């Protein structure tokens, strides 16, 4: 087994376990109420090439990546509304299966690029055949609008390696403002949306029950 497989093993396990745990949170919310603050969850282990690139870019020595690179295991929780993000973060803070060690609020303080998201860094204990190994993982919590913008900007960033032509830079700024306004507008009609969704869910449940008879 090569060194990278060995090193990344616990991160892969953490992502798999966290996916189950965070998706279960969603299922629990759905049982409680028609509106779940969690829309969907994704997770990934950072590819080796990206780990090396980031280490190089941020001057992190390979011996230090375990402590200095917090997003080798990365989770994303997508929400419909900005207020849902705070509900999710509150739930993460009180869990006993990991410890929140840092929070970065890029919603109240958006990044210069226009990026908005709430980042929570956790210390997660992985059980291995050699005993417990604590690893760091980053959970990004964002709305669907924030995710749309970040996904597009990320791919453009990849293409231009951060050096955007002026026109694209301005358009991305405008798109970030539009995503912000979209979140605001959706929050203002939140009651209407959640009522409609509750109605739709009830109707679906009734339909399922009738079909089971
Ligand atoms: P469901 O029931 O479809 O929600 P794996 O392939 O095993 O590593 P996973 O979870 O399948 O793991 O893949 P990943 O890439 O971590 O997460 C993708 C999940 O996010 C999938 O859900 C997608 O359906 C969901 N997803 C992606 N984009 C959207 C979106 O725009 N809206 C919604 N609602 N969901 C999205 P699952 O896990 O297949 O389960
Ligand atoms: P990936 O896997 O390609 O997404 P730094 O990397 O220096 O910006 P740091 O201290 O590692 O910052 O942590 P930070 O800023 O809390 O989180 C970095 C991650 O947040 C990035 O991971 C992105 O996923 C996301 N992010 C931060 N700023 C931006 C931005 O301006 N645009 C987009 N699209 N995403 C951003 P990576 O390393 O890019 O990895």
Tell me the name of the CATH homologous superfamily.
Beta Polymerase, domain 2
Please bin the fraction of helical residues.
55-70%
Q: Tell me what the CATH architecture is.
A: 2-Layer Sandwich
- The total beta strand count reads 5
User: In the CATH scheme, what's the topology name?
Assistant: Beta Polymerase, domain 2
Strand content: 15-25%
What is the molecular shape? globular
Q: Which stretches are low in confidence, meaning pLDDT under 50 for 5 or more residues running?
A: none
**In terms of structural class, how would the helical and strand content be classed?**
alpha+beta
The radius of gyration over CA amounts to 20 Å
H/E series: HEHHEHEEEHHH
Distance between the termini: 54 Å
Which small-molecule species are bound to the chains here? ligand 0O2
Walk me through this protein's architecture.
With 213 residues, the chain is α+β, with helices and mostly antiparallel strands. The protein has a single domain, classed as 2-Layer Sandwich (Beta Polymerase, domain 2). It contains 7 helices and 5 strands; from the N terminus they run αβααβαβββααα. A 5-stranded mixed β-sheet has the order 1-2-5-4-3. The longest helix has 30 residues, at 3-32. It is globular and about 60 Å long. The mean pLDDT is 93. The structure holds ligand 0O2 (2 copies).
């Amino acid at each position: 087994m090569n060194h990278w497989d060995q090193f990344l093993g616990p991160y892969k396990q953490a992502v798999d376990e966290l996916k189950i745990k965070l998706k279960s949170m969603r299922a629990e919310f759905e049982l409680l109420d028609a509106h779940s603050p969690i829309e969907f969850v994704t997770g990934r282990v950072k590819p080796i090439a990206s780990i090396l690139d980031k280490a190089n870019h941020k001057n992190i020595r390979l011996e230090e990546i375990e402590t200095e690179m917090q997003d080798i295991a990365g989770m994303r929780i997508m929400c419909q509304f900005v207020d849902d993000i705070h509900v999710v973060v509150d739930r993460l803070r009180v869990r006993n299966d990991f410890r929140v060690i840092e929070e970065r609020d890029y919603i109240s303080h958006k990044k210069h690029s226009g990026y908005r998201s709430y980042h929570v860094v956790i210390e997660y204990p992985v059980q291995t055949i050699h005993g417990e190994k604590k690893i760091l993982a980053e959970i990004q919590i964002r709305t669907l609008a924030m995710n749309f913008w970040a996904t597009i900007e990320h791919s453009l960033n990849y293409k231009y390696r951060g050096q955007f032509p002026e026109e694209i830079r301005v358009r991305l700024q405008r798109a970030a403002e539009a995503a912000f306004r979209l979140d605001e507008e959706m929050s203002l009609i939140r009651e209407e949306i959640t009522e409609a969704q509750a109605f739709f869910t009830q109707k679906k449940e009734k339909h399922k029950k009738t079909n089971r008879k």
